Amino acid sequence: MNKKIIVLIIIIFIILSIGVWYFFFYSKNTESQLNEIIPEEEISEEQMRQTIVSLYFYNDAEKSLASEGRLIDAKDLLKEPYKKLMELLIEGPQNTNLKKTIPEGTKINKAELKGETLYLDLSKEFIENHEGGEEKESITIYSIVNTMTRLTEVNAVKILIDGEENKAFKDNKIKFDDSFVVIKEEDEKVIQSNNVEQ
Length: 198
Prior knowledge:
Elements: H1 2-37, H2 45-48, E1 50-59, E2 64-73, H3 74-79, H4 81-91, E3 98-99, E4 108-114, E5 117-122, H5 125-128, H6 134-148, E6 156-161, E7 180-185, E8 188-192
Parallel strand pairs: 5-6
Antiparallel strand pairs: 1-2, 1-3, 4-5, 6-7, 7-8
Helix pairs in contact: 4-6
């Protein structure tokens, strides 16, 4: 009988030891894991709504367009995405190594998607205030087309001036008769259009 009591006491002692060990070690590990998961700072609703867009500006050092990532409120893109992107292009880059491509005074009359083509109606300042030259004009077009076609639904951009089609820059080198599209060629985005006079 004494042996049974001793065995029972030993079993109770082992169970209590395991319980104490579990309580002290496992609960501390669980607590430290929870502390690692909980962020120190709450993420605000505004931060949760932010998204990154790519805007194309001119990089003078490399003599080419370069994209600038911009963090904006996703709500702005839901309302009028094309107008918002154009407004950001008109404002210009935040990176000091990049240059603005849209002429001063340019206003957005309307931006409307028809099928896969974005119809972008701009004010006359877009052509009147442009410094000219086929290369610079092409860079202006590239910046718009590359920016807009980053949106999956846009595959081409048709430019109108104050509601009128078939306009052109002042030197008549680049006309807006056709829509501008971007194609992938050797991993570089290039503009393809039939409206550049030779």
